[in-house]
Amino acid sequence: MKIHEYQGKELFKKFGVKVLDNRVAKSGDEAAKAYDELGGAIAVVKAQIHAGGRGKGTFIENDKQYGVQLCKSAEEAKAAAEAMLGNHLVTIQTGPEGKQVNQVIVEAGCDIARELYLGIVLDRENKLPVLMCSQEGGVEIEKVAHETPEKIFKENFDPAVGISSEQIKTLCDKLELTGPSVAAADTFMKALCKLYVELDCSLMEINPLVVTGDGDLVALDAKLNFDSNALFRQPEVEAMRDLSEEEESEVRASDAGLSYVKLEGNIGCLVNGAGLAMSTMDIIKLHGGQPANFLDVGGGAKTEAVTEAFRIILSDKNVKGVLVNIFGGIMKCSTIAEALVSAAKTVGFEVPLVVRLEGTEVEEGRRILEESDVDLISATDLTDAAEKVVAAIQ
User: Fold this and answer.
1) Most confident stretch, 181-190, 305-314, 336-345
2) Closest by alpha carbon to 218, among 93, 102, 74, 44?
């Protein structure tokens, strides 16, 4: 689960991480009022979307307007906000369709001496969280990691203990931080590691992390992602969820207990088991097709959930054909067959439907389908199914 920058900074403040004073605005007038309340000579208006690269991102409606604007008056703040709100910001992370901006933050100016990068993720190889820093702040860190990985410095830490002062001193030496900045970094980094663990984060990034003229450290940005499986113990975080930023079909699937990710292809997939779903998408690609989604109905899905899965797949206007690939273990083939018949009655299949069933109660499942009036193409195995669905949509 992702949250907005302003929400991330609210959490930062609770853990003692320094951020700049800011206000959320949903209109030009609110942005102008926020500028006046901040009381400085400058302020920055930032679009709030669940994507990075806003500073270089431009709007579909106005490609000369960027997602981050420096303003020197209330009138400029109002104009910047009005140019952003309601429009679609395109960045390196949004795709060409962009994301609609529904709110902005107006943030106080800052005495910037240096810009650094800081991030925390799970290091799967070492099975520990890792704190990463770089002197290349304010730029695309993915490019730095790819072209000059030696410029990213890393320290793993035990989540039960946190990062040590010795580790932070090592990072400070590599970042060329001295004097009061070392003490500031000790407090700053320890607080971030504590937040990452206690709130079940899956990713935390600050880009840029600012070193001020007097040597203090301030988070100029806040990107936080959370483990969705842990939200039951993070009610404060869950309350920050912005459904308008999420794909509607993925929200529907989550509510139905389905694992679904929308893709850009035209062959809808309904499969039981994540590994089998990945294999199904791979073999569709192998035979020249493009999967429109990842969808794992799981092993215990009931008829209602599977019917909803069909509704979600068929609601995608790009879908020109559907492949059902079920290997019955816990999930019975007869359940899928009944759901398929139900979906055909309630939703209707206006695109080719290829079905491959194997495993528990497969004969019963095939009988249900044969005795129904659902127009479908039967497949004997996965290769046969992929070939048939690709041929059907062509």
Assistant:
1) 181-190
2) 44
Which domain covers residue 330, as residue numbers? 248-393
Most confident of the following: 176-180, 336-340, 369-373: 176-180
Task: Please tell me whether 54 is known to bind a ligand.
Answer: yes
Summarize pLDDT for 290-325 with one digit per residue, the tens: 999 999 987 766 778 888 898 899 989 999 999 999
Band (347; pLDDT cuts 50, 70, 90)? confident
Owner of token pair 């030009």: 28
CATH number for the domain harbouring residue 71: 3.30.1490.20
* Rg (the chain; Cα; Å): 25
Instruction: Answer yes or no: is 118 within a domain.
Output: yes
Residue 325 labeled ligand binder: no
User: Is 46 annotated as contributing to ligand binding?
Assistant: yes
Q: Looking at the domain assignment, is residue 2 inside a domain?
A: no
Is the N-terminal amide bond of 208 cis, ω within 30° of 0?
yes
The reply to whether 257 sits in an annotated binding site is: no
Which residue type does 236 have?
E
Task: Say yes or no: 41 and 62 in one domain.
Answer: yes
| Catalytic sites, residue numbers | 117, 205
